[in-house]
Amino acid sequence: MHQSVVALRVLVVEDEMLVAMLIEDYLCEMGHEVVGPMLRIETAIQAARSLEIDFGVLDINLAGEQSFPVADELRSRGIGFMFASGYGASGLPDRFDGIPVLQKPFEALQLERLISSVRENR
Euclidean distance between the first and final Cα of the chain, in Å? Predict the structure, then answer.
């Protein structure tokens, strides 16, 4: 770990607190700053629209709502992101083809590799 030379401000959108805390721990260990976690779509959209963010990790399903509006907001600002889901990429709209999906449960190294991959391909 600790390959990241650039510390990122990472928006975490996750409604399960234990998972959010785990992601936060992983990101902090990598030297990143966590924005959030955002537990609801409305607050996540506001954050994606207005806060200084370098990257996003978005749970697809938050309390029965999908995080796609948050992803659209990040994309419109040119901010890289990935989805995190227990269901993998199934059910993603076509407009998100090519966006990485981190399959839950995951380990820190998987998260770090995907962040690096998305950042390199921008």
Answer: 22
Tokens of 33: 């700053």
Q: Is the dihedral of CA 34, 39, 45, 46 positive or negative?
A: negative
In a domain, 84, yes or no: yes
The tokens for 2 are 């600790």
Q: State how far the alpha carbon of 14 is from the alpha carbons of 5, 41, 120, in Å.
A: 25, 9, 24
Structural domain boundaries enclosing 105: 9-120
Model pLDDT, residue 4: 42
Q: Is the pTM of this model over 0.90?
A: yes
Phi, psi of 14 (to 5 degrees): -155, 130
Q: What is the pLDDT of residue 91?
A: 77
The domain that holds 107 is classified in CATH as 3.40.50.2300
The amino acid at 23:
I
| Mean pLDDT per 10-residue segment, the chain (122 residues) | 71 96 96 96 97 96 93 97 87 91 93 91 74
Evaluate whether residue 42 is within a structural domain: yes
